[in-house]
């Protein structure tokens, strides 16, 4: 006997599509939700839309840029770092890899900047640092 209803977080990628089809076998009523947050792979959203339509599933696409309006925070940011090293310096490639780890980090810009500044001070003990 199938359960009554389920909501699937559906990106349109392989993993969420597999989950969607599993849920369709085990639940009577299935709806899907996709979060549009400015991702580089917009094609997945289109694929999610097409799969949901083909399967006769109600599909909701939520525009996550609205969160910026609620929190008054931008959904993107720029980081500028200026420092004068003391005994230690950071290699530019290492710094880029470290900063890249924040790409999909779910936090406010100010919190990220503070953490980056503290991490660099703890690691390098620079004469001067501005983040």
TrEMBL record:
GO CC annotation: cytoplasm
Molecular function terms, GO-annotated: preQ1 synthase activity
Group of enzyme by EC: oxidoreductase
Metabolic or biological pathway: tRNA modification; tRNA-queuosine biosynthesis
Residues the record marks as active site: 75
EC identifiers of the protein: 1.7.1.13
Protein name: NADPH-dependent 7-cyano-7-deazaguanine reductase
Source organism of this protein record: Streptococcus pneumoniae
Gene name in the database record: queF
């Amino acid at each position: 006997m199938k359960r009554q209803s389920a909501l699937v977080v559906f990106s349109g990628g392989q993993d969420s599509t597999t989950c969607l089809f599993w849920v369709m076998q085990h639940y009577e009523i299935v709806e899907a939700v996709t979060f549009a947050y400015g991702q580089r792979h917009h094609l997945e959203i289109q694929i999610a839309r097409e799969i949901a339509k083909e399967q006769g599933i109600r599909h909701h696409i939520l525009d996550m840029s609205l969160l910026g309006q609620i929190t008054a925070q931008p959904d993107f940011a720029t980081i500028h770092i200026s420092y004068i090293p003391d005994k230690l310096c950071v290699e530019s490639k290492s710094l880029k890899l470290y900063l890249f780890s924040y790409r999909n980090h779910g936090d406010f810009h100010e919190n990220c900047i503070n953490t980056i500044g503290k991490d660099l001070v703890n690691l390098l003990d620079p004469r001067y640092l501005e983040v």
